[in-house]
Design goal:
The chain has 189 residues and is of the alpha/beta class. The protein has helices at 51-61, 82-99, 116-131, 150-163, and strands spanning 36-39, 45-49, 64-69, 76-80, 105-110, 135-141, 168-177, 180-187.
């Protein structure tokens, strides 16, 4: 009788390595080209040589040979401590991510029978969102037979467009998507 341990066959990585994530950096013996351009640990160019010659120089100085520009002709390699190189790459990526501006799309929902006070409140909120540098997606939702009066939804969105003229510009014109009409505003610079 066969007793299963709960693991189904076919999946997993038994006997195989997991696939690598991201670009792979080649170091030391993994550099397999005829010639490479070598830069030493102080940033000076040592010239074009074979990978074995460069590896001998790197080992003599107590460092690794790291391929930094594989797309160049010939590929560029540096004599550097590999751990330090990885640390600097991670730090550079973190700094780039920190400087990245993330723009969110925030949605404001209306109904065809939205009151004057509710409209003004939501319009002011949309103005604040645009002022913060984010996009606004204004949606008019229809229920049941309300969809026969699409013009009411279009009037609300046209009015919103006029009221937000100074804070933002229309990125996508109002369009019907199923039982709702949407328009997207972007902040003005």
């Amino acid at each position: 009788m066969f007793i299963s341990n709960g693991v189904t066959g076919g999946g997993g990585f038994r006997g195989r390595r997991e696939p690598q994530k991201g670009p792979q950096v080649r170091i030391n013996e993994r550099i397999r080209v005829k010639e490479i351009r070598v830069i030493d640990d102080e940033g000076q160019q040592l010239g074009i040589m074979t990978p074995q010659q460069a590896l001998d120089i790197a080992r003599e100085r107590g460092y690794d040979l790291v391929e930094v520009a594989p797309q160049a002709t010939p590929p560029v390699c540096r004599i550097i401590d590999f751990g330090k190189y990885l640390y600097e790459q991670k730090k550079r990526a973190h700094e780039a991510k920190k400087k990245q501006v993330v723009i969110e799309v925030k949605e404001i929902k209306f109904r065809p029978g939205t009151d004057e006070h509710d409209y003004n409140f939501k319009m002011k909120h949309a103005r604040e969102i645009l002022g913060d540098g984010n996009k606004v997606k204004a949606t008019v939702r229809f229920r049941g037979r309300e969809i026969t009066h699409k013009e009411l939804g279009m009037q609300i969105l046209e009015r919103l467009e006029k009221d937000l003229l100074d804070a933002g510009a229309v990125e996508f014109r109002p369009r019907l998507e199923g039982m709702q009409i949407t328009v997207i505003f972007t902040p003005k610079k």
